[in-house]
From TrEMBL:
<dbReference type="InterPro" id="IPR006076">
    <property type="entry name" value="FAD-dep_OxRdtase"/>
</dbReference>
<feature type="region of interest" description="Disordered">
    <location>
        <begin position="105"/>
        <end position="143"/>
    </location>
</feature>
<keyword id="KW-1133">Transmembrane helix</keyword>
<protein>
    <recommendedName>
        <fullName>FAD dependent oxidoreductase domain-containing protein</fullName>
    </recommendedName>
</protein>
<dbReference type="Pfam" id="PF01266">
    <property type="entry name" value="DAO"/>
</dbReference>
<dbReference type="GO" id="GO:0042147">
    <property type="term" value="P:retrograde transport, endosome to Golgi"/>
</dbReference>
<feature type="domain" description="FAD dependent oxidoreductase">
    <location>
        <begin position="9"/>
        <end position="396"/>
    </location>
</feature>
<dbReference type="GO" id="GO:0005770">
    <property type="term" value="C:late endosome"/>
</dbReference>
<feature type="transmembrane region" description="Helical">
    <location>
        <begin position="9"/>
        <end position="26"/>
    </location>
</feature>
<dbReference type="GO" id="GO:0005829">
    <property type="term" value="C:cytosol"/>
</dbReference>
<dbReference type="InterPro" id="IPR036188">
    <property type="entry name" value="FAD/NAD-bd_sf"/>
</dbReference>
<keyword id="KW-0472">Membrane</keyword>
<keyword id="KW-0812">Transmembrane</keyword>
Amino acid sequence: MSKPYEKNIVIIGGGIIGCTAAYYLSHHPSYSPSTTSITLLEASKRGAAQGASGKAGGLVAKWAYPRELVDVSFTEHVRLASEHNGTDRWGWRFVGCGSWEGRGEVTNDEGSKSGVGKGGARKSLEKTLGLDGGKSTKSARKAKGLPDDLTWVSEDLTASYSPMAPAGDTAQVHPYLFTTSMLELAQSKGVTFTSGRATSIEREGGCVTSVSYTDVETGEVGKTIRASHVILAAGAWSPSLLPTLPISATRAHSITIHPASGVTIAPYVLFTEIALSQSNSKRTTTVSPEIYARPTNEVYACGPGDSSKLPMTVDDVVVDEEACESIRQHVASISKELKEGAVDKHQACFLPVASIGGGPIVGEATKIAKGLIVATGHTCWGICNAPGTAKAISELVMDGKIGCVNLKKLDPARYLP
Ligand SMILES: Cc1cc2nc3c(=O)[nH]c(=O)nc-3n(C[C@H](O)[C@H](O)[C@H](O)COP(=O)(O)OP(=O)(O)OC[C@H]3O[C@@H](n4cnc5c(N)ncnc54)[C@H](O)[C@@H]3O)c2cc1C
């Protein structure tokens, strides 16, 4: 008879947090597949990274927040890219990143819509909160400041461009490729991927004991996996398993554009403020799409968030085509290159937002049960902060305490009643 495992780790959620946790656990020095079993449960029929982790921009920045996670995460992103050829495998590279302000030229009134999906008030994704002031300085506004190679936005329409951080402080990954690479590397060390929607986390005597789930392929309900440790990384869906978690969901739309062949898109990420005037009135609307050049000459752009209702699973997320078309028009309004490009993806996803205390929430929820580890609420910085989160969790599970960083501020005890 084979010996029972010393640790049975179940990760709920195959987004960037869950997949990167699987990578760090399976690469921890004391991990052995003969003593530790790791199972990653993912509710989507289409596999990992179908939510925010596959549809995000992919910025990795030293100026992101919270500080404690960013410091570990940035260094780890650099290491992972160098160890696993992230440049080819997941589009790792350093990028210029700046705030761009100017006018947009629209050909009809459609372009002056806000880009917010049906489902509620416009919500900022709040990426620039980590910067002092968050916007360009007055002196930078006076001069246009456009870098020589940033030729894919119209110089005439530019009022100002100012870098957000010094060169070397901002990088990017392709989030879908990064997440699925983390999973593949974890699987190569013995992690099991299971298509299943977790329905409950069982506990006994103050400790987690198992996870019940519905098999996504067969529809069979009430299947269980034994667990000594459960990592709850189900993004915006995490409260469906732990209802007291103060996590809310914000939906955001994005598109990808392929510029015409022969057009080179220099590596910049732009946080824009575009003043659009309506042809039949003097009113001006300001829109703020984020625009990301990617190494494959693909360009990604996203609009603001909205508060539409979180559906049952990631596969049920509805895309509001009008919101996507608005993003396209806003981006096209400042760039001939993007206007003439072919739109590829129209997509939407929900990002997990900690509704109190800023978040994310990372650590063992001992108030609920020993062995229950929460890792969610990464808001607009989950791609950047996944490696730091995952490294900390792997230490918590394998060493019994987090050694790489002090995460007291993110401890579930501060967030759970
Ligand atoms: C428009 C946009 C742009 C962004 N840009 C950036 C950026 O440039 N840089 C950055 O750092 N961050 C960015 N983000 C934020 C980032 O995308 C998120 O913080 C991150 O993806 C969250 O990852 P996650 O794994 O927690 O959640 P998700 O990616 O949502 O993953 C959760 C997974 O759990 C699964 N799941 C849910 N319920 C269950 C269940 N019961 N059982 C099993 N599985 C379940 C879901 O199917 C899903 O796959 C952006 C977000 C948006 C929306």
